[in-house]
Amino acid sequence: MHYQRYKDNKPERSRGASIGIGAAIAHRLAQEGANLILFSRTESKLKYLSEEIQSKIDTNTIKIFTTAVDVASHVQVTKAVSNVVKQNGPIDVLINNTGLALRAPATFPDLKIEDVVAMTETNVNGYLFATYAVLNEGGMRERGQRTILNVTSTTAMEAPPFPSESIYYGSKRFQEGFTDALRTELAGTNIKVLALRPGVVATHFHKQRVDFDKDAYDSFMEGFETLLAEDVAEAAAWMLVRKNESW
Questions:
Q1: Taking the model in full, what pTM does it have?
Q2: Pick the catalytic residue: 6, 168, 169, 217?
């Protein structure tokens, strides 16, 4: 198999990369020879992930760059993208993976407004700001023949029949609509816009959404045959590497 687009010092950028699905995708694409630019809010987690990947991969074949960024800040995202492009060149692939759900099983009117804002800024603004910055400051729109992969959710297909999903479901529906509209707008540019829709994945994400209450977590997961983060990473690698060879 030929992975030239990943091995010629052309970086891939992943947001929400420090734990869970993001970390698994970073590990998997490193195996394919991708140079990685990893963005997340927590610098210590990014450092740990980078060291973990380097311990398993020959660091002479790939490069890993990490930057702590608040994805809810357009200024921070734009500055971070501009800086990494100056240091490493244009970005080939953007993976939007940031996600946040809080206070389950609280219904919408029972949420704190701060939680509503936090989820919306992360799940909606975060995707918009990163995509906008990579298309412009990242040089993707000028070069074409690049890929944007938005990690959405099967949740976006139909509202779950239990409480606490109004903001998360709504934001995932937004991500799907944004992905579809952006794909149409970029038609003819050779920029692929893809959506990856995982089901329920056993990660830190679902523990956090119930405030790390084990009983609540077990209750939420009851009846699900959960995916692993590595399953989602394998799907992402297929979409970005193998499937691309047939297009």
A1: 0.85
A2: 168
